[in-house]
Amino acid sequence: MSQSYDYLIIGAGILGTSLSAELAGRNKSVLILDQHGVAGGASGGNLGQISLMDRFEDWHLDLALESSEYYAELGKRHPIGYRQHGGSILLMNDTQIARAEEVKRLQNLRGLSMEILSPQEARSLEPNLKKNGLAAMAYCKQEGCLDPLALTFYMSDLAVARGATIQTGERVLSLSMSGREIGRVVSDKGTYRAKIIINCAGGWSSNVAAMVGEELPIRSHKGTAFVTQPMPPMLRTTLVGGGFLMEDTGEGAPDYRVGTAICQHENGSIIIGQATEAANVDERSLGRRGLSETAKNILSYFPVLEGADIIRAWALSTSYSADGKPVLGYSPKADNLFTVAGFKGAFTTAPAVARRAAAMLLSGETFVHEIEPDGRELCKEQCG
Ligand SMILES: Cc1cc2nc3c(=O)[nH]c(=O)nc-3n(C[C@H](O)[C@H](O)[C@H](O)COP(=O)(O)OP(=O)(O)OC[C@H]3O[C@@H](n4cnc5c(N)ncnc54)[C@H](O)[C@@H]3O)c2cc1C
Fold first, then answer.
1. Cα separations in angstroms, 369 against 40, 44, 133, 331, 357
2. Taking the mean position of all CA atoms in its chain, how far away is CA 299?
3. Of 46, 140, 216, 363, which is the most buried if we count CB atoms within 10 A?
4. How far is the centre of ligand 1, averaged over its atoms, from the C-alpha of 216 (Å)?
5. For residue 126, how far is its CA from the centre of ligand 1 (angstroms)?
């Protein structure tokens, strides 16, 4: 006989674990299934940057600011490695500066302390920054970083402490329909029933949606990054390239590109990214090209890293949405399938996204004016 739950969540990344903690905290029975492990997808291989300057719309910045507050509080009680030491965007030409000025005006109106520094000011903030041709640097002191693995495991432990069950190494193979609802969830290890099935499958979320004949605008690409041994303090802020301001990461982006992203974590190790390339969602092979070009790129900014020992490198898939908008809501194809996916840089917003999703699931609250996911049904009441 199959087991039955209030909620069955597919995916134990930062979104699935955060949402399960919220739902289990309201005395709901929750089962999470993950084909790999907790943080076995993108949540286990990212830089942990908490970025605010690249959240251009109000709803997005609201989620990011709410989550930053949460991290600041949580960081006092739990070792998630959260530090609000400021973030920088390296601007290499007039187009990027013009875009940064535009974003700065909007962010300042929202109370964010974004400013544009001259190359000299940039170098006094980051003395190891030696890039030739640096045109300017955007800086926001409210940005920061955290340890993404520590956070995801904190969320999964919290969910379990509140009564949730997490089963890893178990892949959902099909969603079997009974009328307009999913009647059974079939994995490679068992069969389950749940009142609501939640798709938190990150880069795989389109595959999960396809099990009920739904097409999601979620795509994935492969990111390559690596981490050094712990080093003396070398960076004061987290840094990314100007491309982060250009909204060019969606559908129109080239199949292969090397961007700039670097941050030094609390223990001294420096995480460096990243080559991004079109690839199948399950493709995790490390390519020589992505590694060497990412290393070459970062050395052009920080030659001090020449000779640094790389202790681990990885490549894995992360999701993005074709139109830049996330998917948050019930499926048009199955009345009890709810999707939470396609949030850009989801560590920056996950706690607030989980709260919104839980409110929608538990009380039918809507966020239609904040998030407009392309005609998607936001709640059953609204559409009934
Ligand atoms: C190199 C790199 C650097 C990044 N840097 C940052 C950063 O600095 N800051 C930031 O905020 N974000 C960053 N990101 C993005 C961030 O990692 C993602 O936005 C976030 O992890 C997405 O979380 P998620 O829970 O939606 O997906 P995931 O963490 O990918 O979780 C989805 C889970 O679903 C599981 N799953 C899928 N299909 C099935 C199935 N059929 N059955 C069972 N389980 C299934 C997968 O195994 C996976 O564990 C980076 C990503 C990469 C790759």
1. 33, 32, 42, 19, 15
2. 26
3. 46
4. 16
5. 30
Out of 210-224, 249-263, 341-355, least confident range: 249-263
Q: What is the DSSP letter of 369?
A: T
Which pLDDT does position 253 carry in this prediction? 76
Q: Quickly list H helices, 14-57.
A: 14-24
Q: Tell me how far the alpha carbon of residue 155 lies from the centroid of ligand 1, in angstroms.
A: 14
The CATH superfamily assigned to 84-144+219-321 is D-Amino Acid Oxidase, subunit A, domain 2 (3.30.9.10)
Beta-strand pair 30-34/87-91: unpaired
288 versus 368: the higher-pLDDT residue is 288
Q: Tell me how far apart the alpha carbons of residues 145 and 98 are, in angstroms, rounded to a whole number.
A: 26
C-alpha distance from residue 281 to each of 36, 66, 246, 255 (Å): 13, 30, 25, 14
Ligand 1 atom nearest residue 37's Cα: 49
> SS3 of 231, please?
coil
Read off the DSSP letter of residue 255: S
Give residue 16's pLDDT.
Answer: 98
Counting residues of the chain whose pLDDT is more than 70, the rounded percentage is 93
Mutate to test the pocket of ligand 1, among 347, 348, 349, 353 (most ligand atoms within 8 A of CB): 347
Tell me the C-alpha to C-alpha distance, in Å, between residue 125 and each of 141, 160, 267, 302, 321: 11, 42, 21, 14, 34
Between the alpha carbon of residue 54 and those of residues 61, 81, 90, 107, 143, the distances in Å are 9, 22, 13, 10, 11
Q: Is 12 in the pocket of ligand 1 (CB under 6 A)?
A: yes
Identify the band that residue 321 occupies on the pLDDT scale cut at 50, 70 and 90. Answer: confident
pLDDT band at 130 (very low <50, low <70, confident <90, very high): very high
> Average pLDDT, stretch 177-193?
97
Q: Is domain 3-44+149-217+324-383 annotated with CATH 3.30.450.20?
A: no
**Do 84-144+219-321 and 3-44+149-217+324-383 fall under one CATH topology?**
no
Q: How far is the C-alpha of 175 from the C-alpha of 189, rounded, in Å?
A: 14
* Domain assignments of the chain as residue spans, ordered by start: 3-44+149-217+324-383, 84-144+219-321
SS3 letters across 126-190: CCCCCCCCCCEEEEECCCEECCHHHHHHHHHHHHHHCCCEEEECCCEEEEEEECCEEEEEEECCC
The residue count for the chain: 384
